[in-house]
Amino acid sequence: MKWIYQQFPAWKTARLGTRLAAPTVVAIGVMILASSSFAASGDEGLDWVAMAIQLAGGLAIFLYGMDKMAEALKMVAGDHMREVLGRLTTNRIMGVLTGAGVTAVIQSSSVTTVMLVSFVSADLMSLTQAIGVIFGANIGTTITAQIIAFKVTKWALLLVAAGFLMEFASNKEKIRTYGALVMGLGMIFFGLAVMSAGMKPLRTYEPFITLMQEVSNPLIGILISLTFTALVQSSSATTGVIIALATQGLISLEAGIALAFGANIGTCVTAGLACIGKPREAVRVAVAHVTFNVMGVLLVVWFIEPFADLARSISPASPKLTGVNQLAADLPRQVANAHTIFNVGATLLFLPFAAFIARFAEWAVPDRPMRDDEIENHVKQPRYLDDGLLKTPSLALGRARMEVGRMGDSVSDMMKAILPAILEKDETGLREVEEMDADVDNLYANIIPYLRKIRLEGLSEEQGQQFTEIIEAATNLESIGDIIETDMVSIGLNSIEEKVVISDATRKVITRLHGKVSRALDLATQALTGNDVEAALAVIGMKAEINAIAEDATTHCAERLVADDPNRMNTYAREVEIIDQCKRIYYFSKRMSKAVAAVSSAEEDIISEAAD
Predict the structure, then answer these.
(1) What is the C-alpha separation between 418 and 407, in angstroms, rounded?
(2) For residue range 142-160, what is the model confidence (pLDDT) as tens digits?
């Protein structure tokens, strides 16, 4: 299957089928089971096959519209999501607001949770902060219910047509993206209308009404909804079915609330699956998510009737209607409002206790001590790369950028250690530097395939530029690591074998050059990880200064050829090799910075002259 995606990138849309297939099969299965169960009643007036097709097809259209709208929203606002999360402080309220905003935009609490796992694993965010964002993510998911509860299904096909025209008739990428958003929204409403129409005959079907009355039992309702959400891994799918049932007046408000509670717990299954095989920090985030959702439901489930009365009191009513017609008119908004009230209320209640939930998660998932063989053979593993973010390229690119930053830190450590090892003829130190490159190679071996996966998802023009920056930086850093591991370590080993002695005066000029190049390397890494154009321009501006220092060092070494030293030629060769390798390292650092600053070769000299 991977080969097919690689050869035919357009086929990547087929992956959506795995998401649509589950709810479609479940819907058809429910209808078939229902038809079998009700066959004994002798009712021949319902066309169960047609109803199953409408329910399954409507659910598929609904989910496809959700996916299409979410992808468009990610393109419109997703590029800023990483920066928004990255600026979180210890302020829990800001964490809640940010979690709600991010989840409302990307329409996926699971993606938000995966991002949190990366931040917590990287020590960029505490578990307590992450819990605040999880609270907000639960609020963000209620936006879906609020959108589809509005009576706008009659405009569904108009939205589909308008969105289609915008997406396929315009040459401007922004208009096409907004077109996809509008078209996705129309498909959500149309899918809801199809599901609702498919269920309409059940309004007068006594056996089904009796069955739905059983759902009013909170435990049964929660279990049914939890199972359905876990199977389809989408609380949005469950929300769509609940609203469709409510639109036909087939469930009571109490049953709708119980089903919404089950969806809240069921959505934790996705986070639980995402943390399988991940670090302990990831598991703790999932445990905190489950703890919060389950505790919230347990506190309110005993008071569903008064909670339902509260939802009715704040929702618009249709007093002129009666019976099923009144339920069909009022229930969708009441269910959506109950869903929102529950999640906002649970957040306000548990937010002061976020630290206690974090401690519970740490107690439930303690750190595992490393074994002796792991310590001895430990190689730096990727910390940020997560396949769960691939469907949001802007976030995945941010993770890759941070991983390349770790790669840069390892190369910087090698750079700082290599010159002292050469000058002091420290063979042990040289071997340690050589081994340090294993970290660089391992990170590079994971980053490049991850970037390839991102590319297969399809990128906007801006994201394409970011992709180029990151992959060039990774390649340049890998080249620098190889220079240090192979060439500079060899210089040090040859110096030991040839008994080379470098004078104090030469050490000073070489150390000065090495220091400047090390500074350029650090700034280049900073420019990449922080998208810092100023730091990138600073590296480019160092060109004239580093060339001048390298030329002075070469001249100094050449002048010492006449020194009274029987090993002078070997010493001169090693000194010049060190200078040349430092110049090569600066060259690759400058290439990294040029990609970040989008500077051409012609502009490079102007910047360098201005800095000089």
Answers:
(1) 17
(2) 776 777 666 566 778 888 8
Residues of the chain with pLDDT under 50: 1-44, 89, 373-376
Name the residue with tokens 């009643």.
Answer: 41
**In the 8-state DSSP scheme, what is residue 90?**
S
Q: Hey, is 553 helix, strand or coil?
A: helix
Under 8 Å between Cβ of 97 and 104:
no
Q: Which residues of 138-163 are buried (b: 16+ CB within 10 A; e: fewer)?
A: bbbbbbbbebbbeebbeebeebbeeb
Strands (E), 462-603: none
Q: How far is CA 166 from the centre of its chain?
A: 28
Rounded distance between C-alpha atoms, residue 612 and residue 609, angstroms: 5
DSSP codes, 105-167: HHT-HHHHHHHHHHHHHTTSS-HHHHHHHHHHHHHHHHHHHHHHHSS-GGGHHHHHHHHHHHH
CA distance 359 to 127: 9
Residue type, 374: E
* Domain ranges (residues) in the chain: 30-364, 376-611
* Residue 504: other Cβ atoms inside 10 A: 6
Q: What are 59's two structure tokens?
A: 């659910």
Cα separation, 341 vs 330, whole angstroms: 17
Q: Which pLDDT does position 19 carry in this prediction?
A: 47
CA dihedral 507, 508, 512, 513 (to 10 degrees): -40
pLDDT score of 450: 93
What predicted TM-score, i.e. pTM, was given to this entire model? 0.62
Cβ contact 222:273 at 8 Å: no
Instruction: Say which residues have a Cβ less than 8 Å from residue 347's Cβ, sequence separation at least 6.
Output: 96, 135, 136, 138, 139
The count of other CB atoms within 10 Å of the CB of residue 547 is 14
Output the pLDDT for position 74.
64
Residue 414 CB burial class (10 angstroms; 0-12, 13-18, ≥19): buried
Query: Which long-range contacts (C-beta less than 8 Å, at least 24 apart) are formed by 532-537?
Result: 532/596, 533/596, 533/597, 535/593, 536/592, 536/593, 536/594, 536/596, 536/597, 536/599, 537/593, 537/597, 537/599, 537/607
**Residue partners of 472: CB distance under 8 A and separation at least 6:** 591, 592, 595
Domain 376-611 has CATH 1.20.58.220: yes
Q: How far apart are CA 200 and CA 46, in angstroms?
A: 11
Q: Could you give the CA distance from residue 147 to residue 140 in angstroms, rounded to a whole number?
A: 12
Amino acid (1-letter code) at residue 103: T
**Rg over CA atoms, the chain:** 31
| pLDDT tens-digit readout, 10-49 | 333 333 444 444 444 444 444 444 444 444 444 445 666 7
Can you say whether residue 172 is alpha, beta or left, with left for phi > 0 and alpha for psi between -120 and 50 degrees?
Answer: beta
| Cβ neighbours for 601, distance < 8 A, ≥ 6 positions apart | none
